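It would be a great kindness if you could assist me with a short task in structural biology. The full record is reproduced below for your convenience:
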Amino acid sequence: RRSPSQRQSCPGSAIGGMGASWSQGDSVEQRWFGAVERGDVLVLRGLAVQSISPDARDCRGLTALMVAAAKGHEACIVLLVKVGADLEATDGRGWTAVTHAAVNGKDSSLRLLADCAANLNTKDFLGTTPVIRAAIGGHERCLRLLVEYGADLQVKDNLGLAAVSHARRKGRVTCVHILERSGVGMLPKALLVSASRRRVLEKEFEASRSAWFRHLGGK
């Protein structure tokens, strides 16, 4: 259950929405979340030295780090990590700051969090991971970054679907290519073609070798 300060600190609509205006009468928590929504790192730094927890939540259940990651406010992310924000905190859907970055296609946020050793394989309430979310959204840069940092590309959600399956379903062609080049999700047809080609090459090699031996025997 959230504290009163956590329940009241909600800066307007959901992430990506209209936002909100702020007045001098607002609480520290309201100014805190207003600053992170705007990406105002100077105000955020000033508030960080006050008695607010870096993991305080707004009425959506989001921490400042989640908001900064979703918005792509890099300077805010750096500051929040420095003051001890929890990298693994989750919202009501089980999304971490990493998940919010992947969902919103913020590769710069994702790289910062990955460099801070944030978990790249957390599962939400649907069993989806940041890799799956990036594939669903067609966020190619995020997907490449997750591949680069060694995220699990094979993990499946609660429906038994991996990232490459979601990418195919959504028509995210480039994401499918990224995942397949990383060695996952080859279609059975592709495997059959590969095996067939190998057999052809083996037969050609055997025929060439037999012809060579016959040539030697004829001398």
